[in-house]
Amino acid sequence: MKKYVIYISLILFVMNAPISFAGQSASYYFTAAAPPTKAVAANGGNISAVINVDTGALSTAFTPAFTLNTNTGASQTLTMKAEANTQGGVQNAVFNVGAVKYVILTNSNISPPISSLTNIKTGSPTASSNPNAIAYTINDPPAVSGSLTVAYNSGNKNWDLILFHNGNTNTSITVPSGAPFTNTYSTDDEPGSYQAVITLSFNN
């Protein structure tokens, strides 16, 4: 009888012991970070004109256009700038006199000295001191409601843009036809192709 009781007690002890089982499945999560896409493409617009030999006026407006494309509506910053070539290398071609902005076109066949741009940027140029460089009014790029804001940066002489639109957004900049900035066109400006380069780029 004693044996029987001891035997039952052992079985109950084993039955009450904690029971554990090995896991029968496992999961893995594959994670790939997708960065925001940032693309800028040229999108037409007029980029050629004729300079009137008597007055220096542009025959038609320049209207270079761009398309921005991104996969996020989060704010992203861009810069639009204009540069022109000189004997001393590429220089910022934008300046302002009060609220009016101007862009300087330089002769790509006979590059001007940097001093030509420096003289024009004073706002009170002397024609004989700025050979092979001619300045024209340039308008701010337009803002796009719900997609793009634009502000002129008077310190850097360029434009700060903020994009907050998913997909395509179009923008442009205009150099109106008409007369050049006073005392920037003269017989000191030699024949050739007068140019400036407009660049729009994401900041990061």
Question: Your description of this structure?
Answer:
This protein has 2 helices and 12 strands; from the N terminus they run H-E-E-E-E-E-E-H-E-E-E-E-E-E. Strands 3, 4, 8, 9 and 12 form a 5-stranded antiparallel beta sheet that branches. Strands 5, 6, 7 and 11 form a 4-stranded antiparallel beta sheet that branches. A 3-stranded antiparallel beta sheet has the order 1-2-10, with no helix packed on it. It is 11% helix and 34% strand. The protein is mostly beta strands and 204 residues long. The protein has one domain (49-202): Immunoglobulin-like (Sandwich).
For the secondary structure, the number of strands is 12
Distance between the amino and carboxyl termini: 88 Å
Task: Give the fraction of residues assigned to helices.
Answer: 10-25%
Uncertain segments = 1-14
